[in-house]
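Narrative summary of target 7.
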Amino acid sequence: MTRDYSITFFYYPDIHAVTAFYEDVLGFELVLDQGLARIYRIAPNSYFGIVDGNRGHLRHQEKSAVLLTIVAQDVEGWHARMKAAGVANLSEMLRGNYCEHFFFEDPAGYAIEIQRFHNPDVARLFQ
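Modeled conformation, tokenized:
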């Protein structure tokens, strides 16, 4: 069976409180507004959605154990953009064995990471 793409959803007590963050700060392209959910394109076949946690399939949780990772080549540029936007809990740039990355939070406390695989063998796995 083939798979075409995936959509990851985060649940919020009020999605209108985070739409500007995803649309203006992160620059995600709105693909579909369903009223109780908004689906964004992150990359050509990568999608992310925000859902009204009062009406959706799941309920919003005060503290989540989920991380949205966005892979981008210009990690330093993204870090500067997030710093200028004053995002919450912005980490310093980090360099591990496989990637350069940093973390921050959206207005509701969901964790987001921006990373770039600097190891070419690992980067090839995702092309």
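The two ends are 21 Å apart (CA to CA).
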